[in-house]
Write a structure and sequence with these properties.
alpha/beta, TIM Barrel, 3 domains, three-stranded antiparallel beta sheet
Length: about 575
């Protein structure tokens, strides 16, 4: 934006200053969940390029009930025939659970309110959500310079009509919700004046409170200012002896990208209830994302009453019926949010996961025995929301040695020695750099297998013929060395070789030395089983040091026999040293 254009804009505090020097919310913590209300079927639906049809809305409604929402805004039944028919279908098919209260939105206009009550016939529990715009901008532009008194009267008249009609809905338990729309840019004293005028009409009590929804219809400023607004409002109600008669509800939007933060600070400021949508769908940049707020609470050990244990399934239904996609970097649900490409991140995640795995191998008899989740870069356990570890570490040219080792361990059961990681990581990263893209799991294995596993050129291991005790060795001599015979292939020609040693690998090295084929010494050896049971293969890792220059090289051998796997690993390391 050019400097001349910036002059069009004024700081929010110039228009709506807030004096709250003794604010309390910064010292508070969120310890309990609010009342949740989904507005996916109304606020979210109206923002779709192709709104959901009745069948799709019914499927989404059932999903929201399964997640655990007890308050669900099902639409604006007076606005269109589709909205009206959807609520009637819920009633006629007895699809509303007994513990779910449906919410209907309506402007504070007489004919719309009357039509809304027609739609509510047969509903057991309902929230009638009445609203009108109150901000000076709306008063000036939308209502043609309407006075504050006139706008307040619209709210009062609307609520009075709801109160008059409520007894006619004999089978419906009605809770009133009132929203001063655009609360976020309404003068605080005026918003309070309108809300208290509405309360005067409805006469809520502590036993039968009403809902005052204070929407950030447009996000004009920083989340701390939103928190100040909410705390100021709550404190004024407290001073007037009215706080216990209302539930303060939040309804943030995301115009500045801080809708979640504004909600969390608003809860610190005293709010009781939250309206939002799954994955933040809504007008412009969207509504509050309830998934993120609820899982943020879960990550601090707070129960929310919402079940996102199978978040991928929830996401699939959402994307199908809304025709909206969830961004790859969307918190918790995005395809890449539990993925690390960075080498240092991968290494830290691997160590954290290994540590958690060891800790959970102990006997766990109750949830209290579970180890605290402490894995670098992962705020929650992906498995807790139906994600898997499959994509936690993915490999491109920026990835590190630890990430490659993690993938080989996870996919193939190979626990590479720590000092082997740099060699393997470099070759895999070089391949990703050459292709200028991420490598698949299969491609990572192909690179590792080609360069490290059972490498057969220029020296190839053919077979181990066995061993014999030397004739001059006395029986029972623990220090006696066995003589081993091997068949190898050198540049395509088979050759029998023999050597002595305290094991096949040591004997093989001596056999090569006798043939003047040895320019190394063995510096490390590891072995492991791959898989479980009698059919498991063995993997061995051997490191050699080239005597001519001291360079170190690892090789890997895989074979059903642990001895043969070790010999193949040694040959692989020798071949790598001869090619470097």
């Amino acid at each position: 934006m050019k400097p001349t254009q910036i002059r069009k804009y004024r700081h929010f505090h110039e228009r709506f200053p807030i004096v709250l020097p003794d604010r309390q919310w910064p010292d508070r913590q969120i310890t309990t969940a609010p009342v949740w209300c989904s507005v996916d079927l109304r606020d979210g639906n109206q923002a779709l390029a192709i709104p959901m049809n009745v069948d799709e809305k019914l499927e989404f409604f059932k999903l929201l009930c399964a997640v655990g929402f007890k308050q669900i805004e099902v639409g604006f039944p007076s606005a269109s025939e589709t909205e009206f028919r959807f609520l009637r279908r819920l009633v006629e098919e007895n699809a509303i659970p007994d513990d779910v209260r449906v919410q209907v939105l309506v402007q504070a206009r007489e004919h719309l309110i009357r039509r809304t009550f027609e739609a509510l016939e047969g509903v057991k529990q309902a929230v009638v959500h009445v609203y009108n715009s109150t901000s000076p901008l709306q008063r000036k532009v939308t209502f043609s310079e309407a006075s504050r008194e006139k706008i307040k009267q619209i709210a009062v008249d609307g609520v009075a009509l709801v109160k008059e009609l409520a007894p006619t809905a004999k089978d419906t338990d009605i809770v009133l919700e009132y929203s001063p729309e655009s609360f976020s840019d309404t003068e605080l004293d005026y918003a309070l004046e309108v809300c208290e005028a509405v309360m005067d009409v409805w006469q809520p009590t502590a036993e039968r409170p009403m809902i005052l929804n204070l929407p950030a219809t447009v996000e004009w400023t920083t989340p701390n200012v939103h928190a100040d607004q909410i705390e100021w409002f709550c404190r004024q109600l407290e001073e007037h002896g009215r706080r216990e008669k209302v539930l303060i509800s939040l309804h943030t939007h995301n115009d500045r990208g801080t809708g979640v933060a504004a909600t969390e600070l608003g809860l610190l400021a005293g709010a009781d209830r939250v309206e939002g949508t799954l994955f933040g769908n809504g007008e412009r940049t969207g509504n509050l994302d309830i998934v993120t707020v609820a899982l943020n609470m879960n990550s601090h050990g707070i129960e929310t009453g919402l079940d996102f244990a199978d978040l991928p399934s929830i996401r699939r239904i959402y994307e199908r019926v809304t025709r909206m996609g969830v961004h790859e970097r969307h918190p918790y649900a995005g395809e890449l949010v539990f993925t690390a490409f960075s080498g240092s991140h991968q290494d830290a995640i691997k160590k954290g996961m290994d540590r958690i795995k060891k800790m959970t191998q102990a006997d766990i008899t109750s949830p209290e025995d579970l180890p605290s989740w402490e894995v670098p870069y992962l705020t929650i356990d992906p498995e807790d929301i139906g994600r898997t570890y499959e994509a936690i570490i993915r490999i491109n040219s920026q990835s590190g040695k630890g990430g490659v080792a993690y993938v080989l361990d996870r996919e193939h059961g190979l626990d590479l020695p720590k000092s082997m990681h740099p060699e393997v990581g470099k070759l895999v990263n070089d391949e990703a750099d050459k292709l200028s893209r991420e490598l698949t799991i299969e491609e990572i294995w192909t690179v590792f297998e080609k360069h490290f596993v059972n490498v057969g050129q220029p020296l190839a291991f053919v077979t181990h013929l066995g061993y014999v005790m030397p004739e001059d060795t006395e029986s029972g001599d623990d220090d006696a060395e066995d003589t081993h015979e091997f068949v190898v292939e050198i540049n395509g020609e088979e050759k029998d070789i023999r050597g002595q040693g305290n094991g096949p690998i040591n004997a093989f090295a001596h056999a090569l030395e006798a043939e003047d084929l040895k320019d190394f010494k063995v510096t490390d050896y590891r072995s492991q089983a791959i898989g479980k049971g009698s059919a498991a293969d063995a993997a061995a890792f051997v490191q050699v040091q080239r005597e001519s220059d001291g360079a170190l090289f690892w090789g890997c051998g895989i074979d059903p026999s642990i001895e043969i796997a070790g010999l193949r690993a040694l040959v692989s390391a020798i071949n790598r040293s001869s090619k470097a």
